[in-house]
Amino acid sequence: SMGDVPEGRVRAPFLVVGCDDSTIRVYSLDPGGEMLKSQSIQSLTSPPRSIEILPMEDSTGMTTFVHVGLFSGLYLRAVLDDITGELGDVRSRFLGAEEAKLYPVAVNDSPAVLACGAKTFLSYPHPETKELLLTPLDYHSFNCASMLRSRVAGRKGQTSVRQSIVALRGAEIFVFSIGDTSNNILTKTIPLKHTPRDFCRHPDYRYFSVIQSDQNVLSKQAREALLADTTRSEEEKKQMGPSEQFGWPRGPGWASCIQVVDPTAEDEKDGVAYTIDLDSNEAALCCDMVPFENQDGETFLLVGTGKNIPSGPPTPSSPKSTGSVHVYRVLDPGNELELIHKTDFDKPIRALMPFQGRLALAVGNEVFLYDLGMKALLRKARCRVPGTQIIGMKTQGSRIVVGDVQESVCYVVYNHKDNKLTPFADDVIARWTTCFTMLDYDTVAGGDKFGNIWAVRCPKAASDEADEPGAASFLANEKAYLGGTPHRLALQFHNFVQDIPMSMQKTTLVPGGQEVIFWAGLQGTLGVFVPFVDREDVDFFGSLEQHLRTEDPPICGRDHLMYRSYYIPVKGCIDGDLCERYFLLSRDKKERIAGDLDRTVREVEKKIGEMRTRVAF
Fold first, then answer.
1. pTM (2 decimals)?
2. Domain RSE1/DDB1/CPSF1 C-terminal, which positions (predicted)?
């Protein structure tokens, strides 16, 4: 590849050639010197599939980049020195198992590269920070692509040039354009009947089962009774329908339903495939797909509900809150549900999950194990844990981690021989848990209602002791502390994020990427926590964070360290949002910070950029 001829020149200065020996070589095209002289060589992990030379904008201005796609599915971008022809600042990203084919395009009058492989990616500089971004397109995977420029007639005879992208996929041709590049998150909306509370998916079907409930809203049964009243006028009956601005008509009690949603539906109106309404002031609170061993491994949808749940503290005159578990069979092809039976309980059911071919169920501060019977659930084991109300459960192996609404998390072990559940470790701080996930067999990360995210770990001695055969009787008689369990969890990291975490899981966001803690907040925040694997990275980002606290103070004047330690001192966590503000600093501040870190500005920017692109978009 030679690339375009630079402005003010009559020919391209360099030629970049990809070789079968897994290298790319840069040759000089200067007729005044030695023609085709080798300027530099860059080794690769596999033979190159395509090479493109493009001048793109970065933090230093316009820079010439060499983009390389490999047969192994790897994408590389290197800086080409305009004078010496040396290659440097090489950055890589795995795009998938298929070969990476690169095509130069333009997006919003700026040069970019379209990478076609297992998925289609767009490589472009961020509009504000000028940092390299590699974003997957929510579209088909293409075989090849090119730019398409067309003239569009405007008013008063004026014409303008419209830039589009034309791509081929098999025997089909696609013409499309890319608009705003400042936001690389694409959302799809499926309208639901009520506020969603939880959802789950059957392992064999593409449909999601979404439970929904709203308080102080008339239920379907109440609306039908009002519509059947002959004394009401037609105008009053029209008000019984839903409103786009205010939803369903207001009234005492709860309105709840279960809907089967197809996330692949092209039209949002076809997103909901099936609906079941709950009556009698019943609200769906949790759900999960549970395979039962006594039913030959068949997977059922179980929904935990609550009845007569008050909007505030209960009073002597308020009816007693109860709960039940509804068992549904998922009918082929997964878009219909059949009610098998339901089992009543004394308290609302806020947490359930599958556990070794059975159902693990939380009622108040008690954990139960159930099997599926013909007419009801059959209880097999029970234990009481410290706390008041269990709001979630996670499991690995024979261990269950229980999250309490105000007493953090508690570890429970199940002994198969004795058929006993025994709590053996809990936290030292009363955290008002909203969500949590297991990072490994001993470590749990969670969030609380005050905007904190933390991780706790069970001591190795306590963990090994709980897994020993016959440990149930020993743990049951071991001395407990302050009304809790015999052992305490150790805090690993703690950080204030200024949003209430509502969902959290350990996952990978990019192909071949590192596992991260991905969380979503009540105000719409999406964030990740990236674990460090190298001590050098910890020291580098820790020093960078210290410099940015001084060089880039908040405009409101608050102290950054005090802000991240709003409730509990920050521990074991570095603020990535603050580190990424390095891209927005002036040139002299960048050079001063880079000098203190014994690095160049480009090396610091590469380090920050790779921390994001290695795990996310």
1. 0.85
2. 255-583
Tell me if 70 sits within 8 A of 51, measured CB to CB: no
pLDDT digits (tens, 9 = 90+) for 322-353: 999 999 999 989 999 999 999 999 999 999 99
Residue 531: pLDDT above 90? yes
Strand order of the sheet with strand 366-372?
Answer: 349-355, 358-363, 366-372, 377-384
Q: Provide DSSP, 505-548.
A: EEE-SSTTPPPEEEEEETTS-EEEE-----HHHHHHHHHHHHHH
Residue 115 near residue 100 (C-beta atoms within 8 A): yes
List, for residues 213-236, the tens digit of each pLDDT value: 999 888 888 888 777 777 777 777
The span from the CA of 213 to the CA of 247, in Å, is: 12
Distance between CA 75 and CA 426 in Å, rounded?
A: 46
- Distance between CA atoms of residues 453 and 447, nearest Å: 4
Sorting pLDDT into bands at 50, 70 and 90, what band is 156?
low
> What value does the mean pLDDT of the chain take?
88
Sign of CA dihedral 100, 105, 107, 113: positive
CA atoms within 13 A on the CB side of 9: 13
Does the pLDDT at position 455 exceed 90? yes
For each of the domains in the chain, give its residue range(s) and CATH number, in order of start.
14-144 (2.130.10.10), 194-232+248-338 (no CATH), 385-472+483-528 (2.130.10.10), 532-613 (1.10.150.910)
Structure tokens at 514: 């590192």
Q: 101: how many CB neighbours lie within 10 A of its CB?
A: 17
Q: Please write down the long-range contacts of 219-223, taking CB distance under 8 Å and 24 or more positions apart.
A: 219/253, 219/254, 219/255, 219/256, 219/277, 219/278, 219/279, 219/280, 219/281, 220/255, 220/257, 220/277, 220/279, 221/277, 221/279, 221/280, 222/251, 222/253, 223/248, 223/249
Helix (H, G, I), strand (E, B) or coil at 447: strand
Whole-Å CA distances, 268 to 187, 209, 243, 245, 552:
12, 16, 18, 18, 44
Sign of CA dihedral 466, 363, 208, 203: positive
Whether pLDDT at 35 is above 90: no
